[in-house]
Amino acid sequence: MAVDPVCKMTVDPPRAAAQSTHRGQTYYFCAVSCKQAFDKEPDKYPRPGLESMIAPALLGQRDRYERVMDGWVDNTHEDAFTHTVTLRDDDRAIELSIVALPSPSYEIREARCRSLSGALDAAVVAGISKLGGAPMVGGLTRRVGELTGNGAGSGLVLAAVIEVARLARQTAKLPRERAERTVGNPWECWQLDMTGWVDLPNSCFTYSEAGRKLFGARSVETPMQPDLYSPRPGQRRVFARTKHARLERAAGRLKLFHSMYDNVHGFELTYEIELATGRIVRAEHITPRLAVHGHLLRAPAEDRRAAG
Fold it and tell me: What is the pTM of this model?
């Protein structure tokens, strides 16, 4: 069965009153009048199946959705960090706190979450408290899902756990003497990055062999600081990050915005998609800060291919 793009009625293609072909796609109509309306402005109507592909579940029946994340890392233990994340959206707000070991194990020692506003199922809170002993590596989201279920707020809590796992890749506990050598020295930072985080090598272009070769070929800057590699005892907010995501349906377009700012990164992404055609009509980015600035942004095409 097909759907008439004009009136949305279900149509049996062999019995359709009319049909049209546009951009390689065949459309079926319940009446000639629908075909005539379609033929006048074919791009006004979505392709079959397109609506579901560009209809984010987070939007549902609303036309706007926003989520804000604030996360930070405190050096609360001799051998572990406390990672805290607050997530707020249009329905609720939660806070998640996880004490975990740094690389290479990323093992969770203690976890707890609470509601700041809106509904949060008690089973979700109880499930998070059982995460002790789990490493923040592959399989973590499955484990969280098994422990928390599908109660109110479970999706937002899962997203918070993922953000904590990302924060855990931003700080380390390395010798202070070695960390001090990173001041104004991108090459020293790169080498320490590769030894401080077990899962960083070959995780992206910057930390690939092709990326390493660029250090001798161009000027590189970094905002990295010694405290990220070797924080002082009891130091609060060693690393802090804020993310802002927004989905909006307006004027026949799906508009997407995402930003992230922290100690060493800063970027904003904007996309606009034409709902009728699925075509990206706007794509922009602002990237004022990167961990290794002047390195990745200006990597030549041949080096990018070599890294890929």
Answer: 0.79
